[in-house]
Specification:
alpha/beta, 8 helices, binds pyridoxal-5'-phosphate
Amino acid sequence: MSIESQIKELHNELPPTVKLVAVSKFMPVEDILSAYNAGQRFFGENRPQELAAKATELPSDIEWHFIGHLQSNKLKMVVPYASMIESVDSAKLLGEINAFAGKLGKKVDCLIEIHIASEDTKQGFSPEEALSLKVGDYPNIRFRGVMGMATFTDDSQRVRDEFNSLHKVFEQMKERVAEGLSEFDQISMGMSHDYKLAISEGATIIRLGSSIFGERKRG
Ligand SMILES: *Cc1c(COP(=O)(O)O)cnc(C)c1O
């Protein structure tokens, strides 16, 4: 199926409460424009340099979500361009984004990445670490919710349990960490192979790459 018809079909299929982020990492700008012309406005990138280059070249009404591991020396390629950083995976990084945003005089929308998979390669806060965050320490961060990746497995019950555990951490954070923050309302979970499960467990953002753009050679 073409990129255009894939986007149109997803826009028809998805509940209005779920935002689609088209993960365009490693994809050329022509493919992003195909999705854009079909009405897609949210795109995800996981490499700072690629995000900065594409954001500069492509239409300014695109909202870019950064979804990769971020190092402090790359903040200048991400903070000015991203409408949301979904992959804040440590308190140290949170502090660095807060300081950088302060210098630019802006507030940055962030999701706290929670480690929910059993694979230890996946980064993120443990639920305990996330629940001990103090939002008052980060005046330039707008805490919007949580993000997570399930284990890559055919065991759908396990994937469902992991998404469910992310939803629970979200609820606990809303009560204890983000108390009174009405904008703490996003749960980003679900990729091409597991987004239906993620939606049934309460995802508000799904991040789809290969099911829109085709298989990647890398990344
Ligand atoms: C690549 C990537 C995706 C999209 O993966 P697909 O399987 O191609 O849909 C989603 N989230 C993150 C964090 C990614 O790095």
